[in-house]
Write a structure and sequence with these properties.
Radius of gyration: 14 Å
Helix content: over 70%
Number of strands: 0
Number of domains: 1
Order of helices and strands: HHHH
Number of helices: 4
CATH topology: Monooxygenase
Mean pLDDT: 93
Length: 85
């Protein structure tokens, strides 16, 4: 198997890992059990992976982590919107 394809598959799977949580939060508007600190740390770490991928010219790292940043930023925005409700 091509290493780049393997990287895209692995990155894709780990990138969508937060999707069920995001969908649940959007449906229930309940963020009671979500740690904002974990989200901030995760977003920062994923952003650094994107920078690393750009520096190394590694498309699988760039794409998967950029998507994960978007998903987790969306989750964090939902946290900010729904936390007081």
């Amino acid at each position: 198997m091509n290493v780049e394809i393997l990287g895209l598959i692995a990155g894709g799977l780990t990138s969508i890992a937060s999707m069920p949580q995001l969908i649940k939060v959007i449906k229930t508007k309940n963020v009671e059990d979500i740690s904002w600190l974990m989200l901030v740390i995760l977003i920062l770490g994923l952003s650094l992976w994107v920078c690393y991928g750009i520096e190394q010219g590694e498309l699988p790292i760039i794409l998967s982590n950029a998507f994960a940043v978007l998903v987790n930023c969306s989750l964090f925005i939902c946290y900010l919107i729904y936390r007081s409700k």
